[in-house]
Amino acid sequence: METVLQVQNVSKVIKGKTLVDNISFSVNQGEVFGFLGPNGAGKTTTIRMLVGLISPSSGEIKIGGYNITTEFKDAMRQVGCIVENPELYSYLTGYQNLIQFGRMLGTVDERRIEEVVKMVHLDERINEKVKNYSLGMKQRLGIAQALLGAPKLLILDEPTNGLDPAGIRELREFIHSLVKEQNISVFISSHLLSEIQMICDRVGIIHKGKIVRVSSVEELVNTAAEQVEWNVSPIEKAKRLLNTFDELKELTLIDDKIICRMPLTLIKYATKKLVSEGVDINSVRPLTVTLEDLFMQMTGGDLHA
C-alpha cells in the first residue's frame, strides 16, 4: 500500500518553546486518517507544517514521495486543503468560484471543473450564487476547490464545525464516497470523537506536542470494550498477580482501584487466582468506556480540542 503522507521525527520550536515534539505517523493511499488533540496540543502547528505555511525545525515530511523542504513545489501539488472555513466569493456562483481558483492554479480546464462538481454532488446548484448556499454546500464547494489540482491528499481542518446533524451526516457520507470513488487519502483534524469513529479508518492522538497513540478505530473501540475495574485488597499484591497474565494490558491505579485492559473471558480465571493467593475481592466489573473516556485517559482529562 502506498504511503501518501509520511511524517518522521518532526519537531517545531518557536521562540524556544517546543510546540511539536518529535512526532511520527503516516497516511496510506485511500484511507481517512483522524488527527485528535486538546487545545494547545500541536494540531494546528502540525497542519501548518503539512501545508507549507511554516517549516519544521527538524524531521522530515513527505507528501506523495516528495520532501516538503527540498521539493516544496512538487510536494504541494499533491495536497488540497481547507483550514477552518473555506474562503469563497459569496457574490459569485459556485462555478465562477471554481473558475477563479482554477486560474490561480494555472493548470485547470473546464473539464476538470465539471469533474469536481460531480464529485461533490453540486451539479444542480453550481450556477447559483454562493451567498444562497447552506453551510454544508459551502463546505462541499470548498472541497471541490481543494480537489481542482487532483491531489493525492486532502486535508480538512475541523470540517464539521458549525454543521447541524444533517450536515455532518451528509459530509460523512460524502467523504466516504470520495475515498471509495477517487481512492484519495483524507487527513481530518477534529474534536468530535463520535464522528471520527464513523468517518476514519485510523487515528493519531496528539497531546502536549507528542503523539500518544496511532491506531485503527477498530483497535480503539476494542480497547474501550476491554477495560475492567478491580476493587481489591491488598492492591499491590493483586497488581503483581494480574500482571502475570499475558493477555492483560495497560494496568493503572485510579482512586484505589485497579483499571486494566483484558479479555472479559479472562475475568473468571483471574478472580480464581487472586482469591487462591489470599487477595480479597470487593468487586470486579467491566467498564462501559466510550471513545471520549479513552481520549480523556490519554490526554490527562482534557476533552476539548
From TrEMBL:
Stretches assigned to the ABC transporter domain: 5-233
Transmembrane segments: none
CDD domains: ABC_BcrA_bacitracin_resist
Protein name, UniProt field: ABC transporter ATP-binding protein
Family statement drawn from the similarity comment of this UniProt entry: Belongs to the ABC transporter superfamily.
Keywords of this entry: ATP-binding, Nucleotide-binding, Transport
A Pfam match: ABC_tran
GO MF annotation terms: ATP binding; ATP hydrolysis activity
PROSITE patterns (alphabetical): ABC_TRANSPORTER_1 (PS00211), ABC_TRANSPORTER_2 (PS50893)
InterPro entries: AAA+_ATPase (IPR003593), ABC_transporter-like_ATP-bd (IPR003439), ABC_transporter-like_CS (IPR017871), P-loop_NTPase (IPR027417)
